């Protein structure tokens, strides 16, 4: 039903914009994917789930006041996905993070550069300047 879809979207959006919300949402959706699966079919399901999660993360929720605010809240959390230490989930989280980064860069290049690419490349730029 429409009311349930709207309510789920609202709850998901609220969770995403909280501290560590991105990681919680990714863990919740990806749970049970890829860890024990084998073969091409399991890998395809894993890729589709990662793409779906990336699309969710790249979409600004209606509850957010502005796209800039959303990127400001969510992008540092997306970059944190690249540093997950747990080997079982690190690969999926990195896949979600890179797919989200690419999606955001295509849809809103200036915001993605400011909130994702500049922080990601800052250490490299510091090294090249000295």
Main sheet record: none
From the N-terminal CA to the C-terminal CA, the straight-line distance is 58 Å
Compute the number of helices: 6
Number of domains: 1
Mean pLDDT: 85
* Topology pattern, helix = H, strand = E: HHHHHH
Proportion of residues in extended strands: under 5%
The secondary-structure class comes to: mainly alpha
Number of strands: 0
Radius of gyration: 16 Å
Structural write-up:
It holds the Pfam family ARM_TANGO6. Residues 16-129 form the TANGO6 HEAT repeat domain. This is TNG6 protein. It is a single chain. By secondary structure, this protein is an all-alpha fold. The protein has one domain (2-129). The protein is 78% helix and 0% strand. It contains 6 helices and no strands. The chain has helices spanning 2-16, 21-30, 39-58, 67-80, 87-107, 109-129. Helix 4 (67-80) crosses helix 6 (109-129) and helix 5 (87-107) packs across helix 6. The protein is globular and about 60 Å long. The model has no long low-confidence stretch (mean pLDDT 85).
Features:
130 residues; mainly alpha; HEAT_TANGO6; TNG6 protein
List the helices and strands and how they pair.
Layout: H1 2-16, H2 21-30, H3 39-58, H4 67-80, H5 87-107, H6 109-129
Short description:
It comes from Ibidorhyncha struthersii. The chain is mostly helical.
